[in-house]
Amino acid sequence: MASLLWFTILVLAVGCERLAELVVATRNRRWALDHGGIEYGRRHYPLIVALHIGLLAGCLVETWVRRPEFVAGLGIPMFVLVLAGEALRWWCITTLGSRWNTRVIVFPGLALVRRGPYRILSHPNYLAVVIEGAALPLVHTAWITALAFTVLNGAALTLRIRVENRALAQARAA
């Protein structure tokens, strides 16, 4: 029972972190649109939000209903991956500064950022999402949530990355 309470606190902490991201994203969105940024993919954004809420809710519902055992050999490495995913996400946020957003907003004619994690990967923030989406539920053996989120997130990210790549290509051409 104690491990379930600690897991609940972890999921709630991740939820609070997501709310902090939304505060940063809302501020950055206003700034971006005021400075010539163009938003793409508005229609799929509610799907992304619902998916992330579903991840957190799924973690809690599955663990409180199924009551899986905490398996330290799985849970501890997954917790480390959750922390690594969070660190990568905030590295992305600080690297992009006011250009970071949870939405697809690009600046026509502005060069892509090629520092921080972006010198290694085109979409490092999405790697953080993939890591966390699989690892967070597995901290407490919520394998159904991990599997469901991974499959649904794969579909959502396929759409999202296509939209973002098209938007970036259009912005570079402008």
TrEMBL record:
The chain crosses the membrane at residues 44-65, 70-91. Keywords: Membrane, Methyltransferase, Transferase, Transmembrane, Transmembrane helix. GO terms for cellular component: membrane. It is a multi-pass membrane protein. The keyword Plastid does not apply. GO terms for molecular function: protein C-terminal S-isoprenylcysteine carboxyl O-methyltransferase activity. Pfam families: ICMT. Its main location: membrane. It is found in: Membrane. GO terms for biological process: methylation. This is Isoprenylcysteine carboxyl methyltransferase. It comes from Microlunatus endophyticus.
